[in-house]
Amino acid sequence: MTLLYFDPGTGALIVQFLAAAVAGFLLFYRTVKMKIKSIFGIKSKKEDDFMDEIDDKEEQK
User: Fold this and answer.
1) Model-level pTM?
2) Which of 1, 24, 28, 48 has the smallest set of CB atoms within 10 Å of its CB?
């Protein structure tokens, strides 16, 4: 019977790899989703930059 031994450094490396893989997948998914939406011309309501609201308020003064 062969037992595997993971020291703390290896465990931390595995956790870091899993966190990076999840973050990379989520960012990739978001980018692909936005590109597909832009091809079809679909724009969500809250996609505008929050700075646009600040600029609009300053222009109204």
Assistant:
1) 0.55
2) 1
